[in-house]
Amino acid sequence: MPVAVPPVRPITLPDIEAARGRIAGTCVRTPLVKLELGAGFPDIRLKLETLQPINAYKLRGAANAVALLSDDERKKGVWTISAGNAGQGVAYAARKAGVPCTVVAIETAPASKLDRMRALGAKLVLVSYEGAWNALDDRAYPGVEGTFIHPFDDDDFIAGHGTMGLEILEDAPDAVAVICGVGGGGLITGVGSAVKAIRPDIKVWAAEPETAAPLARSLAAGSPQKFPEWQASFVDGAGGQSVFPRMYQRMTPLVDGSIVVTLDQTRRAMRLMAEKARIVAEGAGCLPLAAALTGKAGDGPIVCVVSGGNVDMTTFCEIMAATAS
User: Which of 63, 103, 107, 325 lies at a 20 to 30 A Cα distance from 16?
Assistant: First the structure.
């Protein structure tokens, strides 16, 4: 039975500034580096969330959410639903706080992500992608108990992600656009909440893979849509089967559009990042660069959020080999 949740509300600048103080001892301030591509390319800056302790941005939201748990909630333990990065974030923050953690994990997630969640002390319950997506909507899963931390539709989680927006504006005050990969929508809602509160003129773009682009369809239709032709791919950390109505309500005031890229464009962005900046990023983390290279976000300066680097190295090497020509 679905759990009652509070109504959607805007994530405010004070929410985000307070989160910044809470997560300071757990998360790092990640660097923003210029990607040197030469003449004829947009001015692109990379926000390297690959350098968080779990190599992904989800730690920001997880650290803020765990910090705000009551004593009673901590005793019950926490659980979340994840393809890998949110699970690692919640497990890391929970371990640091001495709180038991369970992750309802997508069984097709890369083995490297599953192994890292276990190494962080999380108990895993493996389920299908569809089962996990349904559990996200229900906020419940049979046999799993404790305090649920939603991996994207959660005010505290989103406020934690918003801290990245503050850093982006401090390090790139001349930015004209920010691009975030979109799965559930928590990242872009957090970053967009911070950016639009301070610089409403900056464009905030979503990036989605062609195999899982429900936000682009939803924005075109003017309502949250499903994506029945969804396909699994190496971009496992972004793209969903649908846009949840609550997340559509959160994103629409903040997002200026969604740039849909092909899997080949994403692979080539992964290779370009590795060659030009020596950065190993997962598929979802390469979506913003692929989107920026289409030219649809303008000439820049464009900040691309490199959301994570938890790619299976066999997969990474295969992509490097396939794009060598």
Answer: 103
Q: How far apart are CA 295 and CA 280, in angstroms?
A: 23
The predicted pLDDT at position 240 comes to: 84
The pLDDT confidence band at residue 130, using thresholds 50, 70 and 90, is: confident
Angle at 313 between CA 312 and CA 314, to 5 degrees: 95
Start-to-end CA span in the chain (Å) = 52
Joined tokens for residue 303: 């900040």
181 — phi, psi (to 5°)?
A: -65, 150
* pLDDT above 70 (res 3): no
Token duo for residue 310: 């938890």
The yes-or-no verdict on residue 201 having pLDDT over 70 is: yes
Burial track 4-15 (b if 16+ CB lie within 10 A, e otherwise): eeeeeeebebeb
Summarised one tens digit per residue, pLDDT across range 43-89 is 999 999 999 999 999 999 999 999 999 999 999 999 999 888 899 99
Query: What fold does the segment set 13-57+155-322 form as a domain?
Result: Rossmann fold (3.40.50)
**Quick one: tokens of 275?**
């060659």
Half-sphere exposure of 7 (CA within 13 A, CB side): 2
Q: Are 170 and 31 within 8 A, CB to CB?
A: no
Q: What CATH topology corresponds to 59-148? A: Rossmann fold (3.40.50)
Q: Is the dihedral of CA 43, 307, 267, 204 positive or negative?
A: negative
For CATH 3.40.50.1100, the residue range(s) in the chain are 13-57+155-322, 59-148
